[in-house]
Amino acid sequence: MAVNKGRVFLVGAGPGDPKLISVRGMEAIQRADVIVYDRLANPRLLKHRKPEAELIFVGKLPDKHILKQEEINQLLVDLALQGKVVTRLKGGDPSVFGRVGEEAELLADHGITYDIIPGITSSIAVPTYAGIPVTHRDFTSSVAIVTGHEYPNKTYSSLNWEHLAKAIGTMVFLMGVANLEQICRELIRCGKPPEMPVALVRWGTWADQATITGTLADITEKVKAADFKSPAVIIVGEVVKLRDKLSWIEKKPLFGKRVLVTRARSQASELVDLIDDLGGEPVEFPVIRLQPPSRPEAQEALDRALDNLQEYDWIILTSVNGVDFFFRRLRERKIDVRRMGKAHIAAVGPKTAEALAERGIIANVLPAKFQGEGILDAIQGDLNAGQKVLLPTADLARDYLPARLKELGLEVTEVDVYENVLSMDDGEEIIHLLQNQSIHILTFTSSSTVTNLLEALKQLGIEDPQSLLQGVEIACIGPKTAETVAQAGLPITYMAEEATVASLVQSMIQGGGNPT
Ligand code: SAH
Questions:
Q1: Residue of the CA atom closest to atom 11 of ligand 1
Q2: How far is the CA of 14 from the centre of ligand 1 (A)?
Q3: Which of 3, 106, 120, 369 is surrounded by the fewest CB atoms within 10 Å?
Q4: CATH number for the 293-419 domain, one of 3.40.50.150, 3.40.50.10090, 3.90.550.10, 3.40.50.2300?
Q5: Which residue CA neighbors atom 5 of ligand 1 most closely?
Q6: Burial level of 464, CB count in 10 A (0-12/13-18/19+)?
Q7: How confident is the model over 322-339, as pLDDT tens digits?
Q8: The Tetrapyrrole biosynthesis uroporphyrinogen III synthase domain covers which part of the protein (predicted)?
Q9: Of 453, 463, 465, which is closest to residue 423 (Cα–Cα)?
Q10: This prediction's pTM
């Protein structure tokens, strides 16, 4: 390998669902100094890049070429010659109508090292996601992947319809929507029965996946009537019939829903995984970042409380984040947890209790619902006037709990263990999705996710965020959050019964489908 030359990874990004990339493909994204990507590679894969990595979009929109293929080939060479690690991310598999040959050839001419990392091609995966396996013992023993693009000009004959029609069981056409009529006509002319089943699947494996089925004789009309657009794969063959029985992702309760997750990235994974598991497409837009208190007074107050940890009779933790930052700071200050030895420890909600349990502390659990009288019932019997309570919370914590404790005659020390700050990374992509009405549900898991989302949109140049959000369904985790949503003048569609992520997701699917 030449010393001062960069290298290029030519990577198949898979058909859309960002989890359908290979492990090597993902590593190439993580290693890249520059990522050159196009339209069919899901931009959500890009969030795995190094923070300083440069992004270059060379996507071809059907009627608008941003960069010609030759220019892309040259671009890869130029970047590599600057000594960069370049990842060229392409939809599906790079070798299947992906022009990887041309890109690799020019790299080879310049002696640049490259890897070609295969991807899951849409020609096979997209039918699969529509419940159509491209082969099946009972129906077909061969499959051909055919371009539907070159017809009717130069390679009309190179496709050799007659051979195709006679020899091949299943045919998958890529880039063929515009030429559907001719494709069907040619296949019938060459002996395929007009009643041969045909399916078109557009945006397969994305939230926008849609399928239309018919026969060689009537599919063209159906596609026109439905205004069914590319990108789509066309599947011709008996296997299409299997879809009635085998369609699977469409049966999931959140299928087709793109759901915006606004909570901090560090806390988002449970919600993201649930949405994904239920067939929805989670899109992360963390509008909150958590960090240690930035005001010196707050930090000092926290440190003072921690230094005197042994004095408290009660320590009440109100959130998983509170637990995380509390223990993080103890560790930073080298304070041994045994200093809490005499304190009763209580946790608001089961998740907080679980976070404590992970650190070896079994706490009294207070109900997660903040409203109502119930909050202190679980420990009321053990509370005595004059006892000292430490309440490590966030800068935005509500004052209900401390107020009640003070009423009961306890001496309450409230300290901020972390603070919420506004974050808006990758906001342009989100605005783009919202403008295209491609986000179907917004999830709000705290009041600050609501205020921060609106603020982030404003700071990104949207004058009237409320109108941008019109028509998007809104799911709220609890009454406080709902109040903030209502104050912002937005309608609430779904409301969690309990203040948990699982209940939030449950509220979104009620009335449709089965949680798995
Ligand atoms: N290398 C790619 C194909 C590139 S050609 C691969 O292996 O998948 C581009 C064509 O692929 C589109 O016109 C469309 O026919 C098909 N295609 C790619 N992704 C698709 C998707 N998610 N859903 C439906 N068709 C898709």
A1: 174
A2: 9
A3: 3
A4: 3.40.50.10090
A5: 97
A6: exposed
A7: 999 999 999 999 999 999
A8: 270-506
A9: 453
A10: 0.82
